[in-house]
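Consortium newsletter contribution from the modelling node. Members have asked for a concrete example of what our holo predictions look like. Here is one, prepared for the flavin-adenine dinucleotide complex that several groups have been discussing at recent meetings.
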Amino acid sequence: MGDVAALPTAKTGAAIRKQAPVVVDNILKLLAHKPADNKSYDGYSSCPLVTGYGKMTLAEFNYKIEFTPDPMLKFMLVFNSYKEHWRLWLLKKYMLPYMYWNKMMKGKM
Ligand SMILES: Cc1cc2nc3c(=O)[nH]c(=O)nc-3n(C[C@H](O)[C@H](O)[C@H](O)COP(=O)(O)OP(=O)(O)OC[C@H]3O[C@@H](n4cnc5c(N)ncnc54)[C@H](O)[C@@H]3O)c2cc1C
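And here is the predicted structure:
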């Protein structure tokens, strides 16, 4: 998984966050002598595009280049991540670093 996987989607940390649970699930299945049949990763990736000071949009898509918003964004009251929003800018500047070090790197998210 990650950049080295060379999947036909954008190489991002956001993609890895969605790939990791699938890989872990499949490894656990293999260890339990079951088929590694979790194919739920849909190519999700997202690219933050800072469009100005205090403004950002998030390009979120899957293998088919369909808009696939992360459901977690609803908790930030962001319903159209493809539109510029100051809350997305706050996500990039403050929340993502916190999520990265405290949640993603510890396997909690
Ligand atoms: C400028 C920039 C901005 C980005 N912004 C974002 C963003 O805003 N949001 C987002 O989600 N993603 C972003 N990304 C993408 C994200 O950083 C990568 O997709 C992610 O870091 C890939 O993680 P990885 O673990 O697969 O690979 P890497 O992070 O590249 O890790 C691979 C590791 O393997 C090590 N390595 C290589 N060869 C060997 C070897 N022979 N022996 C031992 N170790 C080795 C490398 O030193 C490296 O530490 C950005 C990338 C760049 C370059």
